Amino acid sequence: MDLTIDERFVTARLMLQKDATYFYALATFMNMKENPAVGTAGVDIHGTMYWNREFVLSLTIKELAGTIAHEALHVGFIHMLRTNGRHGEIWNIAADIKVNHMLTTMGMVLPSGALIPDSNSYTFNAGMGPDGAQKTVTVTDIDKKTVEKLYDEIYEQVKDILREGSKPGAGESGPGSEKGEGQPQSGLFGKEFDKHITSTESQISPDERDKITNKWRSNNSLAAQIAKQRGKFPGQFQGVLDALLKDKVNWRTILNNYMTNYLPVDYTWQKPHKKSLAIRTYLPNIVRESIDVIVAIDTSGSISQKIMQEFLGEITSIARAFKGLTMTILFADTDIHDVYEVNGSSADINSMELTGGRGGTSHVDVAKWVRDNKSNAKVVVCLTDGYTEFPDINSISCDWIWAISEGGIDENSLPFGRYIKIED
Predict the structure, then answer these.
(1) How many angstroms separate the CA atoms of 192 and 177, rounded?
(2) pTM for the full model?
């Protein structure tokens, strides 16, 4: 007797509960929702798994269990929020290769058409290269590499054939894309399988991003604990989970993500995008509003010269990248000693001279200076060890980011604002 849709999902979940407790526990945190617009299955950044009725009915129970586990790993490992501006389809291919390798080595069954590695490697045809020959891409030692590393290796092999106008960070494909889990689609490399819905990534606030990330870290930790209690936690997942929970992310990436989230974006059709002529399609141009950003550098002596230079280099590169951004850099200890305003090509750290400092540390004057001189500032970024006199939170009129140097305070010691750990 044929099973109904509900019966198929229940049976697949029971199979996971019995044989793959970690995937089952992780999947219990997901919502399930039918969506005919999704050709196969997919998941969004919030953990909702979307599925197509015809697709689900076409699967065996083992394939459906594998599909549920596949989507659970994508959201559990926060793949949709780790793109960081990378090319969306390449990121999805890398994520699918990693996830499917982990699943198949545990004996999970995936639908036909999934990107399934063979003997710890995966090879696919990426299309025709500039020389007219077919381009073959291969990645090896998948078990030893992160999704980021796999992405880098694939990107290096296909960067010469990326289509003009292909969108970095689009991130909408996957147990291998929107239109074809079980039937590969015609994406840039014809390798789409399920749908990784990341189109809202740039629209969510930094606080919401952190909330989603922390939620799935917590869910992941609990799922692992449940599986370990039953003696069914896959050992190969421990390293991936440890890295996820420890948040070993380069501080430059975190800072860049925070900063670019403060840059409002709009579009205009009055002036076409410069790529319109090349691809013979009229594209809107991006319009970025002007914003003020304040950067306060602690000159009390707690910040090494190396970290100060690296931080200034990173922060001024952001200023150069966005025409509408005006950045004011304050050098201060208990008092403000030097003020530099940079934007565009004027963002040159070599022109900045420190004429005072090496006293105690207080950010009260920084908050006062912002109120008196840049009351419309969007964000204040402070490089410090955190051993400072904090301003009254009621005197703060914008967001603050605390970039804390090595040996500085922990996140729980902050009275307000966002925390980044700067490591030498």
Answers:
(1) 4
(2) 0.55
SS3 of residue 295 by DSSP: strand
Q: How far is CA 69 from CA 57, 110, 131, 370, 382, in A?
A: 17, 10, 40, 50, 42
Domain boundary among 211, 246, 281: 246
Query: Contact at 8 Å (CB) between 103 and 110?
Result: yes
pLDDT digits (tens, 9 = 90+) for 361-379: 899 999 999 999 998 888 8
Instruction: Specify whether the CB–CB gap between 201 and 140 falls below 8 A.
Output: no
Q: Do 203 and 267 have their domain in common?
A: no
What's the total number of domains in the chain? 2
Helices (H) and strands (E) in the chain, counts: 12, 14
| Per-residue pLDDT tens over the stretch 10-49 | 899 889 988 888 888 899 889 999 999 888 998 998 899 9
The answer to whether 119 touches 143, Cβ cutoff 8 Å, is no
Domain that holds residue 314: 254-421
pLDDT of residue 69: 95
Angle at 26 between CA 223 and CA 229, to 5 degrees: 25
Residues 87 and 31 in one domain: yes
Which strands sit side by side in the sheet containing 291-298, from one edge to the other?
Answer: 336-342, 325-332, 291-298, 379-384, 399-404, 418-421
The first and second tokens of residue 277, run together, are 């002529």
Domain boundary among 246, 263, 295: 246
Q: Are residues 277 and 206 in the same domain?
A: no
What sign does the dihedral 231-236-241-242 (CA atoms) show? Answer: positive
Q: Is the domain of 144 the same as that of 25?
A: yes
Phi/psi for 393 (5° steps) reads: -60, -30
